[in-house]
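Quick one:
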Amino acid sequence: MPGRQWRPDVYHGKNRGWAKSPSRFPRSYGVVPEEGDSVFLFMETWVRFRSGCDKVPQSTMRRIVSVSRRTDIPAFYGEWFMRRVREGFVGVVNPFGGQRYRVPLRRDDVDCLVFWSKDFTPFVAHLETLDRLGYRFYFNCTVTALPSVFESDVDRHAALRTLKHLAGRYSPGHINWRFDPIIRSSISDEAFYVRAFESLASELEGLVERCYFSFVAFYGKVRRNFRDLERAQGVQVAEPSEPVRIELANRLAEVAARHGIAMYSCCGDYLVGGRIQKAHCIDGVLIERLFGPSETPYKDKGTRPQCGCTESADIGTYNTCPHGCAYCYANANKLTARQSFDQHDPSSAFLGYSKAQSDAWLVDLTCG
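Output:
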Protein backbone atom coordinates (compact mmCIF):
# COMPACT_ATOMS: atom_id res chain seq x y z
CA MET A 1 0.00 0.00 0.00
CA PRO A 2 2.17 2.85 -1.22
CA GLY A 3 2.30 5.87 1.04
CA ARG A 4 0.46 4.20 3.91
CA GLN A 5 2.04 2.34 6.79
CA TRP A 6 -0.59 -0.19 7.76
CA ARG A 7 0.14 -3.34 9.71
CA PRO A 8 -1.31 -6.73 8.78
CA ASP A 9 -2.04 -7.68 12.37
CA VAL A 10 -4.73 -10.12 11.36
CA TYR A 11 -4.96 -11.90 8.05
CA HIS A 12 -8.24 -13.76 7.95
CA GLY A 13 -9.62 -16.22 5.41
CA LYS A 14 -12.86 -14.30 4.93
CA ASN A 15 -11.36 -10.82 5.18
CA ARG A 16 -8.01 -10.88 3.45
CA GLY A 17 -6.23 -7.60 3.88
CA TRP A 18 -5.26 -5.16 6.58
CA ALA A 19 -6.33 -4.59 10.18
CA LYS A 20 -5.45 -1.45 12.09
CA SER A 21 -5.75 -2.65 15.67
CA PRO A 22 -3.18 -5.03 17.20
CA SER A 23 -5.01 -5.08 20.52
CA ARG A 24 -8.36 -6.68 19.69
CA PHE A 25 -10.06 -8.79 17.06
CA PRO A 26 -12.87 -6.80 15.44
CA ARG A 27 -16.35 -8.27 15.66
CA SER A 28 -16.80 -7.40 12.01
CA TYR A 29 -14.57 -10.33 11.16
CA GLY A 30 -17.39 -12.63 12.23
CA VAL A 31 -15.16 -14.88 14.35
CA VAL A 32 -15.51 -15.47 18.06
CA PRO A 33 -12.26 -16.57 19.70
CA GLU A 34 -12.31 -20.29 20.48
CA GLU A 35 -11.72 -21.37 24.05
CA GLY A 36 -8.09 -21.59 25.07
CA ASP A 37 -6.59 -20.25 21.89
CA SER A 38 -5.77 -17.10 19.98
CA VAL A 39 -7.24 -15.48 16.91
CA PHE A 40 -4.05 -13.57 16.18
CA LEU A 41 -1.96 -14.99 13.38
CA PHE A 42 0.75 -12.64 12.21
CA MET A 43 1.66 -9.76 14.48
CA GLU A 44 3.86 -6.84 13.57
CA THR A 45 5.39 -8.52 10.51
CA TRP A 46 5.06 -5.39 8.38
CA VAL A 47 4.49 -7.55 5.31
CA ARG A 48 1.61 -7.24 2.88
CA PHE A 49 0.02 -10.61 2.03
CA ARG A 50 -1.30 -11.05 -1.47
CA SER A 51 -4.96 -11.94 -1.84
CA GLY A 52 -5.43 -15.69 -2.17
CA CYS A 53 -2.01 -16.56 -0.79
CA ASP A 54 -1.48 -17.69 2.80
CA LYS A 55 2.27 -18.17 2.61
CA VAL A 56 4.31 -16.80 5.48
CA PRO A 57 7.01 -14.61 3.93
CA GLN A 58 10.60 -15.61 4.49
CA SER A 59 11.25 -12.16 5.98
CA THR A 60 8.98 -12.85 8.95
CA MET A 61 10.85 -12.22 12.20
CA ARG A 62 12.17 -15.02 14.43
CA ARG A 63 9.43 -16.25 16.69
CA ILE A 64 8.59 -18.34 19.68
CA VAL A 65 6.89 -21.57 18.61
CA SER A 66 4.36 -23.23 20.91
CA VAL A 67 4.42 -27.05 20.67
CA SER A 68 1.48 -27.09 21.56
CA ARG A 69 -1.54 -25.90 23.53
CA ARG A 70 -3.89 -27.62 21.08
CA THR A 71 -2.56 -31.18 21.37
CA ASP A 72 0.20 -33.20 23.06
CA ILE A 73 2.88 -33.28 20.38
CA PRO A 74 5.75 -34.56 22.59
CA ALA A 75 3.69 -37.51 23.83
CA PHE A 76 2.13 -38.59 20.51
CA TYR A 77 3.61 -36.79 17.51
CA GLY A 78 7.35 -36.62 18.12
CA GLU A 79 8.31 -38.33 14.87
CA TRP A 80 6.06 -35.97 12.91
CA PHE A 81 7.55 -32.91 14.61
CA MET A 82 11.13 -33.99 13.91
CA ARG A 83 10.27 -34.51 10.26
CA ARG A 84 8.95 -30.98 10.19
CA VAL A 85 12.17 -29.72 11.76
CA ARG A 86 14.18 -31.50 9.05
CA GLU A 87 11.91 -30.00 6.36
CA GLY A 88 12.27 -26.54 7.91
CA PHE A 89 8.60 -25.64 8.26
CA VAL A 90 5.22 -26.85 9.48
CA GLY A 91 1.77 -26.30 8.02
CA VAL A 92 -0.99 -24.99 10.29
CA VAL A 93 -4.72 -24.60 9.76
CA ASN A 94 -6.09 -21.77 11.85
CA PRO A 95 -8.99 -23.15 13.93
CA PHE A 96 -11.09 -19.99 13.65
CA GLY A 97 -11.24 -19.16 9.96
CA GLY A 98 -9.71 -22.26 8.38
CA GLN A 99 -6.97 -20.37 6.55
CA ARG A 100 -3.72 -22.25 6.06
CA TYR A 101 -0.20 -20.97 6.57
CA ARG A 102 3.35 -22.09 7.14
CA VAL A 103 5.43 -21.57 10.25
CA PRO A 104 9.21 -21.69 9.62
CA LEU A 105 11.09 -24.13 11.88
CA ARG A 106 14.68 -23.63 10.77
CA ARG A 107 17.02 -22.91 13.62
CA ASP A 108 17.57 -19.36 12.38
CA ASP A 109 13.78 -18.76 12.30
CA VAL A 110 13.03 -19.90 15.85
CA ASP A 111 13.87 -17.98 19.01
CA CYS A 112 12.57 -20.66 21.34
CA LEU A 113 10.44 -23.80 21.28
CA VAL A 114 7.99 -24.08 24.16
CA PHE A 115 6.94 -27.70 24.64
CA TRP A 116 3.72 -28.71 26.41
CA SER A 117 3.04 -32.28 27.49
CA LYS A 118 1.52 -34.55 30.10
CA ASP A 119 4.36 -37.02 29.48
CA PHE A 120 7.65 -36.17 27.78
CA THR A 121 8.94 -39.75 27.98
CA PRO A 122 8.53 -40.57 24.23
CA PHE A 123 10.22 -37.28 23.30
CA VAL A 124 13.45 -37.45 25.30
CA ALA A 125 15.62 -38.77 22.44
CA HIS A 126 14.27 -36.06 20.14
CA LEU A 127 15.23 -33.41 22.68
CA GLU A 128 18.82 -34.62 22.51
CA THR A 129 18.73 -34.17 18.73
CA LEU A 130 17.25 -30.68 19.01
CA ASP A 131 19.91 -29.82 21.56
CA ARG A 132 22.68 -30.84 19.17
CA LEU A 133 21.08 -28.79 16.39
CA GLY A 134 21.21 -25.70 18.59
CA TYR A 135 17.51 -25.17 19.29
CA ARG A 136 16.51 -23.45 22.52
CA PHE A 137 13.53 -24.72 24.47
CA TYR A 138 11.83 -25.11 27.81
CA PHE A 139 8.99 -27.24 29.12
CA ASN A 140 5.43 -26.91 30.34
CA CYS A 141 5.04 -30.22 32.18
CA THR A 142 1.52 -31.07 33.32
CA VAL A 143 1.37 -33.30 36.38
CA THR A 144 -1.93 -33.13 38.22
CA ALA A 145 -3.41 -34.98 41.18
CA LEU A 146 -6.67 -35.67 39.37
CA PRO A 147 -8.45 -38.99 39.91
CA SER A 148 -8.14 -41.35 36.93
CA VAL A 149 -11.74 -40.77 35.83
CA PHE A 150 -10.62 -37.34 34.64
CA GLU A 151 -7.28 -38.48 33.13
CA SER A 152 -7.78 -42.11 32.23
CA ASP A 153 -4.95 -42.43 29.70
CA VAL A 154 -2.10 -40.59 31.42
CA ASP A 155 0.85 -42.48 32.92
CA ARG A 156 1.57 -40.13 35.81
CA HIS A 157 4.46 -42.19 37.17
CA ALA A 158 6.28 -42.06 33.83
CA ALA A 159 5.52 -38.35 33.51
CA LEU A 160 6.99 -37.60 36.93
CA ARG A 161 10.07 -39.71 36.26
CA THR A 162 10.73 -37.89 33.00
CA LEU A 163 10.07 -34.47 34.53
CA LYS A 164 12.81 -35.22 37.06
CA HIS A 165 15.11 -36.29 34.24
CA LEU A 166 14.51 -33.03 32.36
CA ALA A 167 15.16 -30.94 35.47
CA GLY A 168 18.49 -32.72 35.91
CA ARG A 169 19.44 -32.72 32.24
CA TYR A 170 18.63 -29.03 31.75
CA SER A 171 17.74 -27.14 34.93
CA PRO A 172 14.84 -26.50 37.29
CA GLY A 173 14.51 -23.13 35.55
CA HIS A 174 13.59 -24.92 32.32
CA ILE A 175 10.51 -26.48 33.92
CA ASN A 176 7.05 -25.02 34.40
CA TRP A 177 5.20 -27.57 36.49
CA ARG A 178 1.51 -27.29 35.56
CA PHE A 179 -0.80 -28.49 38.34
CA ASP A 180 -3.64 -27.80 35.99
CA PRO A 181 -6.58 -27.92 36.09
CA ILE A 182 -8.10 -28.20 39.55
CA ILE A 183 -11.52 -29.85 39.41
CA ARG A 184 -13.73 -29.73 42.50
CA SER A 185 -15.88 -32.87 42.52
CA SER A 186 -17.53 -35.49 44.67
CA ILE A 187 -14.21 -37.40 44.70
CA SER A 188 -11.79 -34.44 44.81
CA ASP A 189 -12.57 -31.84 47.45
CA GLU A 190 -10.31 -29.20 49.01
CA ALA A 191 -8.77 -31.61 51.53
CA PHE A 192 -7.97 -34.02 48.69
CA TYR A 193 -6.07 -31.35 46.79
CA VAL A 194 -4.09 -30.13 49.79
CA ARG A 195 -2.92 -33.69 50.55
CA ALA A 196 -2.14 -34.51 46.93
CA PHE A 197 -0.36 -31.23 46.28
CA GLU A 198 1.75 -31.67 49.41
CA SER A 199 2.85 -35.09 48.14
CA LEU A 200 3.79 -33.81 44.68
CA ALA A 201 5.48 -30.62 45.92
CA SER A 202 7.55 -32.68 48.35
CA GLU A 203 8.62 -35.02 45.56
CA LEU A 204 9.51 -32.13 43.23
CA GLU A 205 11.30 -29.96 45.79
CA GLY A 206 14.58 -28.74 44.30
CA LEU A 207 13.57 -29.92 40.83
CA VAL A 208 11.12 -27.14 39.91
CA GLU A 209 10.96 -23.46 40.79
CA ARG A 210 7.46 -22.66 39.54
CA CYS A 211 4.02 -24.22 39.70
CA TYR A 212 1.32 -22.97 37.32
CA PHE A 213 -2.28 -23.77 38.14
CA SER A 214 -5.85 -22.93 37.24
CA PHE A 215 -9.36 -24.08 38.00
CA VAL A 216 -11.14 -25.93 35.23
CA ALA A 217 -12.89 -23.73 32.67
CA PHE A 218 -16.51 -24.76 32.14
CA TYR A 219 -16.68 -24.43 28.37
CA GLY A 220 -19.66 -25.98 26.60
CA LYS A 221 -17.85 -29.13 25.47
CA VAL A 222 -16.34 -29.55 28.94
CA ARG A 223 -19.76 -29.35 30.58
CA ARG A 224 -21.02 -32.02 28.18
CA ASN A 225 -18.09 -34.26 29.09
CA PHE A 226 -18.79 -33.79 32.79
CA ARG A 227 -22.45 -34.67 32.30
CA ASP A 228 -21.40 -37.84 30.47
CA LEU A 229 -18.98 -38.62 33.29
CA GLU A 230 -21.70 -38.26 35.89
CA ARG A 231 -24.02 -40.59 33.98
CA ALA A 232 -21.30 -43.19 33.42
CA GLN A 233 -19.31 -42.98 36.67
CA GLY A 234 -21.57 -41.18 39.14
CA VAL A 235 -18.94 -38.47 39.64
CA GLN A 236 -20.44 -35.03 40.22
CA VAL A 237 -18.39 -31.98 39.29
CA ALA A 238 -18.97 -28.75 41.20
CA GLU A 239 -18.32 -25.18 40.10
CA PRO A 240 -16.90 -23.60 43.26
CA SER A 241 -17.45 -19.95 44.10
CA GLU A 242 -14.65 -17.43 43.79
CA PRO A 243 -14.05 -17.23 47.58
CA VAL A 244 -13.72 -21.03 47.74
CA ARG A 245 -11.20 -20.97 44.89
CA ILE A 246 -9.20 -18.20 46.52
CA GLU A 247 -9.05 -20.04 49.84
CA LEU A 248 -7.86 -23.29 48.23
CA ALA A 249 -5.33 -21.49 46.03
CA ASN A 250 -3.81 -19.76 49.06
CA ARG A 251 -3.58 -23.04 50.94
CA LEU A 252 -1.74 -24.60 48.01
CA ALA A 253 0.56 -21.57 47.81
CA GLU A 254 1.48 -22.05 51.46
CA VAL A 255 2.38 -25.67 50.77
CA ALA A 256 4.42 -24.68 47.71
CA ALA A 257 6.34 -22.04 49.66
CA ARG A 258 7.46 -24.64 52.21
CA HIS A 259 9.07 -26.56 49.35
CA GLY A 260 10.69 -23.57 47.65
CA ILE A 261 8.17 -23.41 44.79
CA ALA A 262 6.49 -20.22 43.60
CA MET A 263 2.81 -20.37 42.59
CA TYR A 264 1.44 -18.75 39.41
CA SER A 265 -2.22 -18.35 38.47
CA CYS A 266 -3.00 -19.10 34.82
CA CYS A 267 -5.85 -16.97 33.41
CA GLY A 268 -7.17 -16.17 36.88
CA ASP A 269 -6.13 -12.69 37.94
CA TYR A 270 -8.57 -12.75 40.89
CA LEU A 271 -6.17 -15.25 42.51
CA VAL A 272 -3.07 -13.06 42.13
CA GLY A 273 -1.70 -11.56 45.33
CA GLY A 274 0.37 -12.54 48.32
CA ARG A 275 2.21 -15.74 47.43
CA ILE A 276 0.48 -16.11 44.04
CA GLN A 277 1.81 -14.39 40.92
CA LYS A 278 0.39 -14.04 37.41
CA ALA A 279 1.35 -16.92 35.10
CA HIS A 280 3.14 -16.55 31.78
CA CYS A 281 3.17 -20.06 30.32
CA ILE A 282 4.99 -18.72 27.29
CA ASP A 283 7.31 -16.22 28.86
CA GLY A 284 9.69 -13.89 27.03
CA VAL A 285 11.28 -12.83 30.32
CA LEU A 286 12.04 -16.46 31.19
CA ILE A 287 13.46 -17.07 27.71
CA GLU A 288 15.87 -14.16 28.13
CA ARG A 289 16.81 -15.38 31.60
CA LEU A 290 17.57 -18.85 30.28
CA PHE A 291 19.20 -17.96 26.96
CA GLY A 292 20.15 -14.28 27.00
CA PRO A 293 18.65 -11.14 25.46
CA SER A 294 16.56 -11.42 22.31
CA GLU A 295 17.46 -9.59 19.12
CA THR A 296 13.92 -8.21 18.95
CA PRO A 297 11.65 -7.29 21.88
CA TYR A 298 9.07 -9.84 22.96
CA LYS A 299 5.45 -8.78 23.24
CA ASP A 300 2.74 -10.02 25.55
CA LYS A 301 -0.17 -11.34 23.52
CA GLY A 302 -2.55 -13.45 25.57
CA THR A 303 -4.61 -16.17 23.94
CA ARG A 304 -7.73 -15.54 26.06
CA PRO A 305 -8.88 -13.15 28.81
CA GLN A 306 -6.31 -12.71 31.62
CA CYS A 307 -3.70 -14.80 29.79
CA GLY A 308 -0.20 -13.45 30.41
CA CYS A 309 1.60 -15.25 27.60
CA THR A 310 4.16 -13.77 25.26
CA GLU A 311 3.24 -13.81 21.58
CA SER A 312 3.95 -17.12 19.86
CA ALA A 313 2.91 -19.31 16.93
CA ASP A 314 1.10 -22.50 17.93
CA ILE A 315 1.56 -25.41 15.51
CA GLY A 316 -0.94 -27.90 16.95
CA THR A 317 -4.35 -29.06 15.71
CA TYR A 318 -7.52 -29.51 17.73
CA ASN A 319 -9.16 -32.94 17.99
CA THR A 320 -5.90 -34.89 17.71
CA CYS A 321 -4.91 -35.63 21.32
CA PRO A 322 -5.75 -39.20 22.43
CA HIS A 323 -5.12 -38.64 26.15
CA GLY A 324 -8.91 -38.50 26.49
CA CYS A 325 -9.06 -36.12 29.45
CA ALA A 326 -12.60 -35.27 30.48
CA TYR A 327 -11.80 -31.59 31.02
CA CYS A 328 -10.07 -30.94 27.69
CA TYR A 329 -11.26 -27.95 25.66
CA ALA A 330 -9.20 -28.97 22.60
CA ASN A 331 -11.15 -32.13 21.70
CA ALA A 332 -14.77 -32.36 20.64
CA ASN A 333 -14.83 -35.90 22.04
CA LYS A 334 -12.54 -38.83 22.74
CA LEU A 335 -13.61 -40.84 19.70
CA THR A 336 -12.84 -38.07 17.23
CA ALA A 337 -9.40 -37.48 18.76
CA ARG A 338 -8.58 -41.19 18.81
CA GLN A 339 -9.58 -41.57 15.17
CA SER A 340 -7.38 -38.62 14.21
CA PHE A 341 -4.45 -40.18 16.02
CA ASP A 342 -5.01 -43.62 14.46
CA GLN A 343 -5.18 -42.11 10.97
CA HIS A 344 -2.22 -39.80 11.48
CA ASP A 345 0.41 -39.71 8.75
CA PRO A 346 3.84 -38.59 10.07
CA SER A 347 4.83 -37.47 6.58
CA SER A 348 2.03 -34.87 6.34
CA ALA A 349 3.10 -31.26 6.82
CA PHE A 350 -0.25 -30.46 8.49
CA LEU A 351 -0.93 -32.34 11.70
CA GLY A 352 -4.24 -34.19 11.62
CA TYR A 353 -4.61 -34.11 7.83
CA SER A 354 -3.71 -36.64 5.14
CA LYS A 355 -0.51 -36.27 3.17
CA ALA A 356 -2.50 -35.93 -0.05
CA GLN A 357 -4.51 -33.04 1.37
CA SER A 358 -1.40 -31.53 2.90
CA ASP A 359 0.58 -31.69 -0.34
CA ALA A 360 -2.28 -30.03 -2.22
CA TRP A 361 -2.34 -27.19 0.29
CA LEU A 362 1.42 -26.75 0.05
CA VAL A 363 1.10 -26.26 -3.70
CA ASP A 364 -1.46 -23.53 -3.06
CA LEU A 365 0.84 -21.89 -0.52
CA THR A 366 3.62 -21.47 -3.07
CA CYS A 367 1.63 -18.76 -4.88
CA GLY A 368 3.05 -15.34 -5.53
